[in-house]
Amino acid sequence: MKAEARTILYFLWNHFDLLNELFEEQMQKGYLRRESLANILKKYEHDVSDKLHEYKILRSINEDFEIRPVFFNLVEFVQNEFKPVLPETIEKYGFSITNLFKKIKEGINGDKEILIKRIEDVLSEVRHFVESIEKNTTKLLQETRALKSNIEKIDYREKVHRASGWIEHYIVPLNEILDVNQHGSLTNQLHEVAYFVNLKRLDFHDENVRAQFEKLYSFLIQTNDDLLRQSKILTNELLPLIERIKTESLILSGWIEFLRRPYHTEVPRLFKTSRENTYQRNFYLVAKEYLEQFLVDEPVMVEEVTAFQQRWIFNRDLYKAKLEAKLPIEDFFEWCGKTAKKDFHELNQEKFFSLVSLIFEDDMILEADKNAPHTQLQLEDAILHVPKVKIDKHGIS
Amino acid sequence: MEYPKSHKHIVKELLDGKFMLHSDPLYQILKDNRDFYEQFFKESFNYELRFNNDFAFLLSTETNETLSRDICIFFALLSYEIDRDGRNFIEEIQYSEWDMERINQYFDNTTYIELVHSNKQLRDHDSRATFINALSRRNIIEKTTEGRFIFTAAYKVFIDFAAELAKNKVKEGMID
To answer: Which residue among A33, A349, A362, B170 is least packed, with the fewest CB closer than 10 Å?
Structure first.
């Protein structure tokens, strides 16, 4: 009975170290020998050999085993560890794409279902083609960087020998596949396909087929960008390999090693700046330094805090009544002065003008002789020159 | 207590995480009072004062790992790309005057582009410009004119790290 999908994924997550070890073994040897499998399994606490078969992760080949391609590819992908494929293997995509393209052109007016299937297949083949190119360049970059870094300390002759091998068997043939300047290159074939697909996505009479052409066209545009990038890697970095490995530097070897796992290598310590907080151990010194600034002998003025005094409030109604009771008043300002002195025991501006404000009451009738001389009134905090203002009577009464 | 001349300035510069370069007049005062400052930073803050013929800097028990890692990635990629360009990367870093255009050209075209894109401080032109400013604040670069700059001797901290890493890997006999 087939296991639940989640159970298999959980198993993979739970036993990834084991799976990775099996993957590395198969990368090296091409398959898993019965003894190697047993030895690797022994290292782990739980015996999961039954599960490996039940979940169809392993497949028997006579006495030995291999990881099924789907799981192998998964680990390959997540670990970014690829086995380079010989360019002649990649070329097969060229044949299948050309063949399918030919059939599409021939059967363009034929069975619609078959046409759609062929378009889908072209897309799938192009996808596989791009993936194998990317895998190869990734692996070639890793290998050539390792050669450049030369941590193994192999001598120059051996380095050149290995580099020549990579160039002859992988890099040059791969470049031929991608080279747009070569008439028969796979990149040029894809351009031809893209040109045809571009026309058909616009003018094909059936909407479904047109949609398929559209999808393929978008994919081919993206593919073109991807292949250009890969081609650039080849011409900039891989083809000049012999030239590049001529020089060797310990520092560069260190950097290449660092760049293999930049987030898993201990880096130099760098001073961490921080803000000053009261709980920091250096706060005492910071505070001391700050306070020392004020240890200079300069005269200091200390202002005494004045005692709280109740605020004086003018009782307007009371003094309005007093004013009305005295009416008529011959000299209003004189009355204000006298009243302030008598009632408030002081004659300052605040008290005086509080009383003066009564003059603005609506119902007062005022009289003043413009030609009469002003009299001087001495307050505690000011000297005022005031006219003689007579208040006749209360307006209402 | 009598402090050396420019004491406050020296302390501030070092506490700001700057590399105090040989060309800086403060470096000489620091050098003349080396024993005092070693003791001063140790006892006041528990920081270690590192000193060599090119520069001086502080080390704390806490480290700014992110910045240090990004600086390492920066120098690693730059060295790799200069070498790929067929030039002597040490000479270029040590003597060339740089601008953002050249830095961007190397970083935009590197085969480590996935690493570049995944790094917040190096992923695009704007973040790289900010990063270069961060290097300037630490005196790892010195701005010259019109957006150009040179690397100061402080780059040696990171170059030495790479050389040490390679030596250790060779010792470990780490073979892929």
So the answer is: A362
